[in-house]
Amino acid sequence: QDVTIPIIVKDTTSFYWQIVLAGARAAGKDLGVNVPELGAQSESDINGQISILENAVAGSPAAVVISPTEFKALGKPIDEAAKAVPIIGIDSAADSKAFTSFLTTDNVQGGRIAADGLAAAIKEATGKEEGEIAIITSLPGVGSLDQRREGFLDQMKTKYPGFKVVADKYADGQATTGLNMMTDLITANPNLVGVFASNLIMAQGVGQAIAENNLGDKIKVIGFDSDEKTVGFLKEGVLAGLVVQDPYRMGYDGVKTALAVSKGEKVEANVDTGANLVTKANMAEPKIDALLNPKVN
Amino acid sequence: MSVETVESSAGPTPRKGISILFGLTLLGLLLFLWLLLGFATNSFWTPNNISNLLRQGAMTAILAVGQTFVIITAGIDLSVGAVVGFTSVIVAWLLAAGVPLWLAVIATLAIGVLIGAFHAFGIVRMGLPAFIITLATLTSLRGIGLLITNGSTISITNEAFTNFSRANFLGVPSLFWMVIVVAVPAYIFLHLSRFGRYLFAVGSNSEAARLSGVNVNRTTYLAYILSSTCAAFVGLLLASRIGIGNATQAEGWELQAIASSVIGGTSLFGAVGSVHGPLLGAFILATINNGANLLNVNSFWQRIITGLLIIVIVYFDQLRRRGER
Amino acid sequence: MSVETVESSAGPTPRKGISILFGLTLLGLLLFLWLLLGFATNSFWTPNNISNLLRQGAMTAILAVGQTFVIITAGIDLSVGAVVGFTSVIVAWLLAAGVPLWLAVIATLAIGVLIGAFHAFGIVRMGLPAFIITLATLTSLRGIGLLITNGSTISITNEAFTNFSRANFLGVPSLFWMVIVVAVPAYIFLHLSRFGRYLFAVGSNSEAARLSGVNVNRTTYLAYILSSTCAAFVGLLLASRIGIGNATQAEGWELQAIASSVIGGTSLFGAVGSVHGPLLGAFILATINNGANLLNVNSFWQRIITGLLIIVIVYFDQLRRRGER
Amino acid sequence: MIGLQEVGHRHGLRTPAGHPVPKGEPILELHSLRKNYGAVEALKPATMTFLSGEVHAIVGENGAGKSTLIKLLTGVITRTSGEILWCGEPVQLATPNEAISRGINAVHQEVVLCPHLSVAANMFLGDEMNRRGLMRKRAMTDAAQGVLDDLGFNLPAAAVLGSLTIGQQQLVATARAAMRGTQFLIFDEPTAYLTRQESEQLFRLIRRLQSEGVTIVYISHRLEEVFELADRVSVLRDGTHVGTRPIGEANEAELIALMINRTIEQIYHKEHFPAGETLIETRGLTGPGFADVSLTVRAGEIVGLYGLIGAGRSEFALGLYGRHRLSAGEVFWQGRKVEIDSERKAMELGIALAPESRRDQGLCLNLPIGLNINLPVFRRLTRGLTINRAEEAANADRQIRDLKIKTPSRRVLASAMSGGNQQKIVIGKWLSHGAKLFIFDEPTVGVDVGTKAEIYRLFARLLEKGAGIILISSYFPEVYELSDRLHVFRQGRVVGSHGYRTASHEEVLAQAIGA
Ligand SMILES: Nc1ncnc2c1ncn2[C@@H]1O[C@H](COP(=O)(O)OP(=O)(O)OP(=O)(O)O)[C@@H](O)[C@H]1O
Ligand SMILES: Nc1ncnc2c1ncn2[C@@H]1O[C@H](COP(=O)(O)OP(=O)(O)OP(=O)(O)O)[C@@H](O)[C@H]1O
Ligand SMILES: [Mg+2]
Ligand SMILES: [Mg+2]
Known about the structure:
Chains B, C: This is ABC transporter permease. The complex is a heterotetramer, with 1 copy of chain A, 2 copies of chain B and 1 copy of chain D. Chain A is α/β, with parallel strands linked by helices. Chain A is 45% helix and 20% strand. Chain A is built from 10 helices and 12 strands. In chain A, the strands form 2 sheets. Chain A has a 6-stranded parallel β-sheet, sandwiched between helices. Chain A starts with 6 loop residues before the first strand and ends in a 5-residue tail after the last helix. Chain B is mainly alpha-helical. Chain B has helices spanning 2-8, 19-23, 26-40, 47-72, 80-96, 101-124, 130-149, 159-164, 174-192, 194-211, 216-242, 253-263, 276-294, 299-324; strands at residues 154-155, 168-169, 172-173, 244-245. In chain B, the strands form 2 sheets. Chain B has a two-stranded antiparallel ribbon with strand order 1-4. In chain B, a hairpin with a 2-residue loop joins β2 and β3. In chain B, α4 runs antiparallel to α11 (216-242), α5 (80-96) runs antiparallel to α6 (101-124) and α6 packs antiparallel against α11 (216-242). Chain B starts with a helix and ends with a helix. Mean pLDDT of chain B is 87; it is low at 1-19. Chain D is an alpha/beta fold. In chain D, strands 6-9-10-3-11-12 form a 6-stranded mixed β-sheet, with helices on both faces. Chain D has a 6-stranded mixed β-sheet with strand order 18-21-22-15-23-24, with helices on both faces. In chain D, α15 crosses α16 (419-433). The interface between B and C is large, with 63 and 63 residues. Bound molecules: adenosine-5'-triphosphate (2 copies) and magnesium ion (MG) (2 copies).
């Protein structure tokens, strides 16, 4: 294993990124590449990711796979790094033209899908595309979460004018905070019909609040990404839907593409790995099931 | 000596006009906030919301009580948030491995005891500053927890366990009962038993305590073990409440706990503190958040207001204390 | 009195066998780590990596120096991380509004001064504990920063500004030059000027300092202003490095800064500290991270190791100090 | 009323009457006891014997090793080498608990109590009364009050210790040691912060304890106390035991000679200088702790302030020095009306204050001696941006030399100094500052005879140069012998004023007590 291709994710402490890493690990094994798994410990730690990128490049790898944590901020460092090694982007973009290839999910599009899912779920329950809804964002200042919020709000405004966003909340990245916010939202807004919890941790906290209050029928919640717990919520009808990306493939294909690039092969410049809405109805489909149960180890 | 200094830097004396406010104890301030919120919103005084509030403040309150023991000895325990996250992983892991609930609970609390003992060991035997050893375990414990879960979460399927945090008893949320379960023995321990007095003595002048035959080392062990065990207990409650074990949860709760304690009148220089103070502090913080949510205050304004209210509340409390002397 | 306590809890005496290690100063420990990493990896001693290392430790180092001033007076400044994030927003905002670079820089530093002055005001005039007032600004500043950016980021288009952090001067990264730019005056201030002596005196016994004609209030102002200004300066550097203003950046850096300071031998009880200590502390932490990355240590293990190394390093340092006396 | 005996017995603290060894037999023997602090030999091989039931005084210069000896006996520190025999048996005395369990207790030179706890809590610390696991707080407060009353100390048992003056705290420490009673009780300069009145009470207590069979070790720099109380007296010099005398065979001159290895003719060195210009005049000065104080200090004279504990002299000094806000009255400096609203202002006018508590007000204990000495004068030592390090060193070294502060270097931390040497640092600090008016609050607390004489000579030198001195002291002979004018304080007011030796001892004391 002489070839080294490090992969740098946004936050190693989150399940989503662990799936990305699992994909990359599998690719490493299949292709005989050494894949150091790197990443900051929080999606908002931009400086940390820049440092990690610098360190990775210092090790003179064959290529680097990175998921830039912030569009603008990672631009220059990636330009800089690309002078030494080829850079493959996954999941999110950065303000740089130096990427050799891109495998991304469009987070704005993900937000739109969530809006569609929420509207559909509410319509199914009440028969109307109207009512009070809320959005809870896990952390301020995180690019991908901002984009989901943006996509969601925009879709709601343009496509579903009957909905009124009564709360646009930011938590602190803690499930408990999401839980507390949700219980208070329920108290303060008795007419609430839907919520978008835009990442895994918030979906867990918000789902818990819904479960505690047995409001699964009345308040529809769309989450983002999945794990055992939220899939369980989906089955129980606590959550109405989950927007699920294909992190495993991003990791796997990222490394695969990088290897190809390092060998001088020609690769596609842009690949959309897609985002899907998962509901109780479609969760048994094999393709969706594979997304919900990635082979992490 | 620092304590005396702070006290003697007399500062301005309160003017007559607003002296009623100064007379309020922390409890008064809390009730005042509640009244205010009762007027400002319709939903504040609903049984449902009061239940929520009691639940929301419960975990910080328990952490703050544990933290207070340590602060009274002039120490600090930065690890409590990490211990909460870590023990939530431990209990989830044990339950997933099929360990019976009672055993999982006891084992998790025992881990809390061990962590506290390790802190005290570092302080007493290795002569490390409390700040450093607890910061180090903060870092390491999160790492171990993440290793165990492989960066993910462990779901808890035990219904009995996850239902607990949702249950009510005599109309009061079980989480709040847990505060009482912790606070009553803590009160007896701190204010009525000689061990509590030894905590104060060690914090006031550990040399004097030693010369009086107080076992300073044992007292230090006691304080840190109590703090970590409270944190492990909160870890159980958290796991029960969110139904998962996740090592990155409870980040920053150490500051919340310390802040509750300090708002409740504990001095970071040691030897000043109580059990009811941190409880009030924790529920004041919970009330601020709850109220801001009910009033649908923009979450950014919420932060700003929280900061300002902390200043105002502690300031009034300081004035009152000064007045009393 | 706390200091004496720490000293008198003598602990075990070092055994002969490993006494060479105990003799190492912090600088020795840092060099030892570097040697070790030089053996363990091929890439550690490459110019590129050394540049990286110097860049990565730079910001914490500057924060730690500022923090040390405050800790020497027996205070604490929890707000530094928030000030970094906040000032990164301010400078980005000013630049976006078309303010010339030099003015934006000066205005940002001035904001740092104001924040520090506010802290000192709270401590000196309102009699608040340093922990509380700086915790409150931590919370509020993040809120204000988020309000300004509306929860998002402000891009910086000024190339001169964003290129600065990537530039080298005489082969050394400009960020590291900034450490020197801060450290040299800081050294002169703390160790060679009378104001530095006053900081120590206030931290040791503020009443004695006051009766000796030291203006304790002014000294407190000085300490907190220096700390906040260092943080504002780091905010500028961070904005330059990441090219955006974002209020949630630098979360937890206050603990990093305090840890660097304490690893560097500063006592949280005041009156013990230096300028070189925190610098070494910051670069020890940076080295641990850099080394772990180079060795491709799993990031969870990295946390565990960081925690353990902090304990080991501070323990050795304590032993050495004890031996010296 | 619950008294000392009752509390002691009921609480099981006091060993029942009777001696572990017959009166007059050795109860504690030290063989070649040695203590090193790094390179410092605090106690060189010392061999001494204490007899059961005696009052054994120990005298010696500052830094002679007296406190070190006491700390060794009470388990505060552990010896480097040597042997201790208790009732004929070798013992370790490695921890405070071991000493306490054998009935060895001490009142240390520096008050070692917990300032945040109540008086009663301090008295019972480590030995609380419990019932079913809970403390009996009321019972302890009552018992503590009973003991305090029984001893004639007028102190509230429920008060927080930190709110008391150091003198009062010292009394609490004494009461505590007496209550815990013992076989063997050590007093390390117990009268340092006490007035004569309080000292009398302490002496009565000591005699009472002795009559109950307790062996007493009494350390003091005040030789008249030694002659009044002791059965035998031992002298330490430079960490060595240089002799023990039955009190009947000892005389003051010989003891001093043994202690300092030279003779001094006269301790109270009083030179009279013609009174010069009026330096300061206060009219009806009122502030926290004192009221309506009018007095004048002229160049070349010492104005003494005498009073009981809490009479308000220190508060007056602090008020005058700008530390506390004044509520009424006027201050004239060299005939000009001034507002002294800060310490800095006072210093700039030319006032220096050596405060009474070296630990709380005087010293930065965990900083070097040099820094402490130079603290008031750093402004003067600054050249441009930085301090002139050569001058800084020279100034510190000069004070260390002039005051004979016993330290290897100015870099040693003040906390490592013996009590007396710490006091010298406080004084040195103000000598290097230089001023026109010196306020010395208890300047000779814990200072040995030799140094005391030097300090008095130093007063004369200051007066000669045209300075004035306010001397606050609870050590009656000192204020009485040195003051050109003597004001007696009671409850914050001046209740009597006298010229140099114009009033009798009895008259002054009566005014102070208010009889
Ligand atoms: N912790 C310490 N570290 C270093 N040296 C010390 C320490 N404690 C005491 N010494 C030194 O030991 C010597 C004896 O001190 P000790 O306190 O026994 O003197 P003392 O006879 O009680 O004097 P005084 O009358 O001034 O109280 C002094 O030179 C002192 O500086
Ligand atoms: N900060 C304070 N607030 C209120 N009262 C105080 C304060 N400090 C001292 N006192 C009280 O003021 C009175 C005067 O105390 P002061 O220390 O001036 O007496 P003193 O004559 O110097 O006696 P001593 O011999 O103890 O030094 C005492 O009753 C004391 O308890
Ligand atoms: Mg002594
Ligand atoms: Mg006095």
